[in-house]
Potassium transporter TrkA
Amino acid sequence: MENIVFLAFRRMRRPLLTLILAYAVATLGLTLIPGQDADGNLWRMDFFHAFYFISFTATTIGFGEIPYEFTDAQRLWVMISLYGLVVVWFYAIGNLLSLVQDRAFQQAVTERRFARRIRRLREPFHLVCGYGETGTALVQTLTERHQHAVVIDIDPDRVNALKLENLREYVPALHGDAARPIHLLEAGLEHPLCQGVVALTNVNEVNLKVAITSKLLHPDIKVICRADSHDIEENMRSFGTDYVVDPFDTFATHLAMALHAPGLYVLQEWLAGRHHQPLQEPVYPPREGHWIVCGYGRFGRAVYGRLRQEGLEPVVVEATPEITGTPQGEYVTGRGTEAVTLEQAGIDQAVGLVAGTDDDANNLSIIMTAQALNPELFIVARQNLQENQRIFQAVQAQVVMHPSSIIANHIRVLLGTPMLYQFMSLAMHQQDSWACELVSRITAVLEDELPEVWEQPVDEEEAWAVSQALTQGQVVTLGDLLRNPRQRERTLPCIPLLLLRDGSWVTLPGEEMPLRTDDRILFCGRLVANRRMSWTLQNEHALNYVLTGEARAQGWIWRRLQRGAAENGNG
């Protein structure tokens, strides 16, 4: 509000002073010029009536001469004042219109309305800084789960595009610089319902500033940042940033997992993927043989390092080694789009190729050239822009790495189902055979889409019927929740993955495990299982049917009819 008032007075200062001066001169002149009454006596108008007359005369309306007819001198002064005031009013109105059209003024008004709207929020929300491809994917995922978000982006076109998105929940958006604390505060950083801040801009320094501001102004809030520089990542972690996501290191870790534990890789991709997406076929990258990595930037270095840790000695193809640096092993200078360069790197003997430059056209060219020279290659492609997805699907690469999707999926798990993050951390310590068996179990309950993953707390809000039963001393097991509340002999198509109880984790809990109040369970399966399980959790009659097989009448009339039928049967 202070900015709006300041801008208004700064732009309207001269027009307002001119308008006041014009009214003062016109009023003063009318009081000084003598007039005549009906009897011919001289009189002078007082300041109040003079200002009153000038006020309605300046509007060019005119109510007549008061209190007596004017003399010629008075009429001459009134005409001069009238034309002068009209000119001054045009000048003032012109400046007012210019003020309204001023971008700074419009931004100040927009920010004030936005801040007032955020203060009125009554639902928990996440503050998303940056609405690029990653931010778009994250916001869509959050709203699909009926979670709320607030967006800040420095590009007005992205903010306008957000307003046109068909999202399930309304998402307030501000055109502003997330590096400025005032914009973070306007977006609700200190709001008591703000659950977390996600910095997803493409500038590491801005993400760092967002993390610092968030931790200083709201120390207890969860902060998740994107970073593609190890120095920035270490800086973020030094002052308590909760999660730092590097898309290149994350993908390199996944690729290494696919090399030595394909089952864990499939499990990770299935559970972390978005629901309604088709099931992905398992991939088996060659664990031995000759690999070629085209591009030695941030992505190429991360993949190259992981491949070396797996015992491979890949050859790097880089067009500008003087800028990116050179690897420890063998490398070839070139882009990799030419057959000559790939032949120098040993494409005829290669078993795997990584097209990892920061240009999608070059990556596609590398893949097509390599496939022409060696059709049996295992292809790993880096896709930089979402709009090129159809093209990358056409080249039929076995693995496609899209940085925005990796970050969005990772953060979606952290915000939506944090137990899944813990489950995958525990799964990393298991054998690949354990993961393959779990993948088989998941496949048995699914159709042809990725599983729905959800967390189920056992409390009065989310599981009222079960909480009441446990309070009364009844025994409810995990297997009881897996029964179909319509046909208890049938099992719901879902699998319990993880149980949290008193700070301890139980991986793949058994159906015989009795539940306790405040337990929290991670499930995966079909969406219908989640909906029908909610019926058992919240409805005491459905829970009683699941536990005993007895379907109680739920209404007064039905209970009377049931009681009458029982009496007639006994009689």
Notes: The mean pLDDT is 89. Residues 2-101 form a domain with the Helix Hairpins fold (CATH 1.10.287).
